[in-house]
Amino acid sequence: MARGAIKFLHQGAVVELSQVGPNETLLDYLRLRRSLNGTKEGCAEGDCGACTVAVGTLRDGNLIYKPVNACIQLLGMIDGKELVTVEDLATGHDDLHPVQDAMLRHHGSQCGFCTPGIVMSLFTLYHDKGVADRQAVNDCLAGNLCRCTGYRPIVDAGRDACGGMADDRFSARYTTTVDQLTALDDGADLFMGDETSFFAAPATMDSLADLYARHPDAVIVAGATDVGLWITKQLRQLPKIIHLGRVAGLAEIRTTDRGYHIGAGASYAQAEEVLVSIDPDLGEVLRRIGSKQVRAAGTVGGNIANGSPIGDTPPALIVLGAELHLRQGDGTRSMALEDYFVEYGGQDRGPGEFVTGIDVPRLAADEAFRCYKITKRFDQDISAVLGAFKFTIADGRIMDARVAFGGMAATPKRGAATEAALIGLALSDEDAWAAARDALAEDYAPIDDMRASAVYRLQTAQALLIKALHEVGGRDSAAMRVIGVRHGEAAHAP
Ligand SMILES: Cc1cc2nc3c(=O)[nH]c(=O)nc-3n(C[C@H](O)[C@H](O)[C@H](O)COP(=O)(O)OP(=O)(O)OC[C@H]3O[C@@H](n4cnc5c(N)ncnc54)[C@H](O)[C@@H]3O)c2cc1C
Ligand code: FES
Ligand code: FES
After folding, report:
1. Which residues, judged by CB distance below 6 Å to any ligand atom, belong to the binding site of ligand 3?
2. Are 215 and 204 in contact (CB under 8 A)?
3. DSSP bridge pairs for 64
4. Ligand nearest to the CA of 49
C-alpha cells in the first residue's frame, strides 16, 4: 500500500503534507504556503544561490547537511529528510548562529539579498567536519552570487566560523534527529495524486520499473537540476513525476573488479568521492560541475540520461570505457556508454526504460588519462568544450588511444580519425603530433552558439589534444595549468 503524503523533519517536528502538486517547488512551499520569506528567489534556475536551504539526510547512519537550491527542488523530493532554512538558525538577535555571528563581525552583508543563501551554504560547511581553508570556502560559495558586498569579508567569515567541531542547536540534537529520520524511512512507496497527475517516489527498483512501465509518459526526476528548470524557466506542466530519490540501492556506489559501480541515483557529491581516485582530472571536472548545491542534488545518471551534447561527465566516462546499465519492466541490458548517444536529443532508451547505473573502469598501469573543461567562468559554468583523452603507452609510444569531446558535436562523441592518427605516435616526436591535431577537423564540425564559435571550439580542441600530449609526454603539468589540481600539486595558496 503506497503512502499518500510526504513526511519530513522541520524545526524538530515531523511535517506531513498530502496536497503536494507534482510541479510544486520547495521554494514556493516555503514562501507562498509557509510565509518563510527569509529564503529568497533570485534567478529561479539554480545559479545564484539566494534560495539555498540545508537538507539533512542519513548516510550510513550519519547525519549530513547539504546545500540545496530550493527553487529547482521539487517539494516531494524532501520526503524523509530534515529541512533547515535561515529562519531556523537564530533564536533572537542575541543568539545568532556562529555563521551569522561571523558574517556580522566580518561585515559580510550589505543589501542582504544574498545573505540567507550564503549563511545556509556556510551552515553546511560548518557541519562538514572538514577543513575550511580558502579553497574550501571558495568552493562552498561558488554557487552563491553576491553583487554588492564583495567576497573577501564573506570568505573571511566562512574561514572564521567553519572548520572546527560543530557546536550549535543542530549538533546538540544530533541523536534525536538521527532517530527521527530513521523512523521516517518506512520503505513504503510514495504516491500522491491519481492516474492522470501524480508525484511518485517508489521505494524499490521493482516498483519503479512497474510504475514507469505503466506510465511511460511520466518524467523521471533524479536531482531535478535539469527538470526543475523545465518547470521554472520553460513553464512546462509535467503532470506525472517519478522521483528516484527513495529507490533502495539506486544511489549505491560500490567497488567492482575493474573499478566502480555508480548507481543512477547517486549525486555528483557522492560520485566525486570515488571517481577522483581514478584520476585527479576526473575529480577536478566533477568539482567544477555547477556548484555545491548542484552537485548535492544532480546525478551522474541524470547527466548521462539527458543526452546533452555539453554534459561534462559523458566524454570522460566514454574514454574510460564506461558501461551503462538500463532496465525496462523485468528486462535489463547493458551497453558501452558511447552507444547510448544516438543523435541530438535521441538516446538508445525505450519507453518506460530507465538508467540503473554505470560501471567505470580504473586506469591500467600503462594508461594515462587527461580531461579538461573549458568555460567562460571558472566555477559554476557550462562547458564550451570538454576534452577527454586516454592513451595506452609503451616505450614512449601511444599503442592505443581514446579521445572524446563534449560541445563539439550533437552528442558527446569519440574522434575515430584522431584516435587512428595517434596510434603509433612517439611522445618525443612533437612534429608528428600535427597529423593527429589536424584529424580533429575530420571528426568534428562544431556548432556556433552563444557559448563559443565553431572556430574557437575546433582550435580549443586541437590545443587541448596538444596539451594532453605534452603532459603525458612528461612536461611539468603545473606549468600547463592556470588553476586546478594535478597529481597532488597545490592549486591555491591556503
Ligand atoms: C546551475 C546549474 C549548473 C549546472 N552546471 C552543469 C555543469 O557544469 N556541467 C554539466 O554537465 N551539467 C550542469 N548542469 C546540468 C545538470 O546539473 C546536469 O545535467 C545533471 O547531471 C542532471 O542530473 P539530475 O539528477 O539533476 O537530472 P534530472 O534533472 O533529475 O533529470 C535530467 C534528465 O534525465 C532524465 N533522467 C534522470 N535520471 C534518469 C534515469 N536514471 N533514467 C532515465 N532518465 C533519467 C530525466 O527524465 C531528465 O530528462 C547544471 C545545472 C544547473 C541548474
Ligand atoms: S533563486 Fe537563484 S539559485 Fe534559486
Ligand atoms: S549583500 Fe547585496 S547581493 Fe550580497
Report:
1. 109-115, 146-149
2. no
3. 57
4. 2
Ligand nearest to the CA of 241: 1
- Of the chain, the end-to-end C-alpha distance in Å amounts to 54
pTM, two decimals, is 0.95
Task: Kindly report the protein residue whose alpha carbon is nearest to atom 38 of ligand 1.
Answer: 302
What is 98-167's CATH topology? Answer: DNA polymerase; domain 1 (1.10.150)
CATH 3.30.465.10 given to domain 253-361: yes
Q: pLDDT tens per residue, the chain (494 residues)?
A: 799 999 999 999 999 999 999 999 999 999 999 999 999 999 999 999 999 999 999 999 999 999 999 999 999 999 999 999 999 999 877 899 999 999 999 999 999 999 999 999 999 999 998 889 999 999 999 999 999 999 999 999 999 999 999 999 999 999 999 999 999 999 999 999 999 999 999 999 999 999 999 999 999 999 999 999 999 999 999 999 999 999 999 999 999 999 999 999 999 999 998 999 999 999 999 999 999 999 999 999 999 999 999 999 999 999 999 999 999 999 999 999 999 999 998 999 999 999 999 999 999 999 999 999 999 988 889 999 999 999 999 999 999 999 999 999 999 999 999 999 999 999 999 999 999 999 999 999 998 998 999 999 999 999 999 999 999 998 766 667 766 555 444 443 33
Bridge partners (DSSP) listed for residue 65: 56
Which of 294, 328, 348, 353 has most ligand 1 atoms within 8 Å of its beta carbon, as the pocket-test mutant? 294
How many whole angstroms from 46 Cα to the centroid of ligand 2? Answer: 5
Superfamily designation of domain 367-480: CO dehydrogenase flavoprotein, C-terminal domain (3.30.390.50)
Helix axes 151-161, 98-105, angle to 10 degrees: 140
Question: How far apart are the CA of 41 and the centre of ligand 2, in A?
Answer: 6
Q: What CA–CA distances, in Å, run from 354 to 22, 53, 173, 351? A: 20, 29, 39, 9
